[in-house]
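Hi Y.,

Following your request, here is the sequence exactly as I used it, all 518 residues.
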Amino acid sequence: MTPTGTRRWWALGAISLAVLAITLDVTVLTVALPTLAGALKASESQLQWFVTAYTLALVAGMLPAGLLGDRYGRKAVMVCALVLFAAGSAGCAFAPNAEVFIAARVLLGLAGAAMIVLALSIVTVMFDEAERPRAVGIWGAANFIGLPLGPILGGWILSNAWWGWIFLMNVPVALVGLIAVVALVPESRSAKRPSIDFGGVILSSAGLVAVMYGVVQAGSNGWGSLNAILPALVGLVALAGFVLWERRLTERPGGQPLVDLSLFGSRSFTWGIVLSAFGVFGLFGVMFALPQYFQAIMGLDPQGSGLRLLPVVGGLIIGAVTADRVAARAGAKLTVAAGFALVVAGLALGTTMTATSGDRFMALWTLVVGAGAGLGFATAASAALVELSAERSGVGSALLQAVIKLGPAFGASILGSVLNSTYGSRVSLAGLTAQAAATVKGSVFGGLTVARQLNSPELLASVRTAFVAGMDDAVRVAAVVAIAAVLLALAFLPGRIRAAQIADAPRVQTGRVSESSK
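Below is the corresponding structure, written out as tokens. Let me know if you'd prefer a different format.
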């Protein structure tokens, strides 16, 4: 039977612990790349694939993982994913070369996709509409808390122990999550086992991977690069083909499409997904730039940089876990709009930062941004999830997650391009050789290196001022996106979920799922 009372929230804690292991793995890698380059004799291209292979596998695996959960049982697939995640983490730690490491990253990405999707799917069937915002908030907090924790733990491990421990530390976390899921989480699956839509799986996975790869390439080579444009276009064509294929299956008697396209007839589902993506776009775009500011401008190490991300994560947790109370009084529309308005206020304050801004100022505006993003994201995601029946909560949650996962990639790529463009146009290159100028213009860290080599205070000041100007411009763009989110929420998101939908919330039973009588 469905866990009740305290046991149900302990089950959510188990799921959140499993999700935390994924976030830790992602953030730890960012501080480990220099060490891995030497330990595995990896080239620049291979270092890029250390990150990209995981990201692409994560996106490719989401919709298939949701389908497997609906078909074979969400708890069962979650357990398998946790085992594979522990195995992939051990594979990364003991990889003898870059090729094996990349293969282990792919395994981690596929396992992580299943863990993320099934965690949200289980939350959907365990909690009704009234409780779901708080449950989603706790689940979201587990996603976010790993952001500063990864660099802090990773920085300490790299300074004091063998580099392999940054991956092996995931193993006990995954195993504890495994034990807790087995003991506390109820099994659930569709009462009518869905067929496997191979055409939909292939088209959706290929389309998402191609779009994601194009965005990743745009972040490295610019949006005008053929390496970015071509994969993105191919991905969009594949996704268009996916929609046509799903529509054809929907119209065929007895057809079972991977995604129920009728869900998009609901404003709550459609705009809940869109606004969730808007939230992570701006948030992760800013968080992509913040560590660079902390390390390049404030001169901190990765560990110190991670500590200074705590205010934004604290804000996220505060906003996310209080979202249900605010939404119960104000409704989803006003709550999401208020959350993004708070993001706009924080970002507006952030545009006034300078190269000499201190810890208190940085903590203040990032805390406000985090609180607004947590409030808006948790409520928007809950608005989408309320439309999912227990029959297809796996695939529905996977669709939500797939769209959300594109948000950080677009945020980092677009806002990173804005930052780099402003930095490159404002930094002073007077008197530098062509090679030195290219190094300075290439990145803020390259500029700092050249300035110190030349012992040039003028160049050092120019590099720092130009970078902060670029970051200010990126924050302004993020603020415009947040303003758009406010307007879209007010225009399209339903104010309140109907009471009938609460009564129709799915109920979980051991081994199967049934829906309440309507």
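Residues 271 and 493 are 6 Å apart (CA to CA).

Thanks again,
Q.
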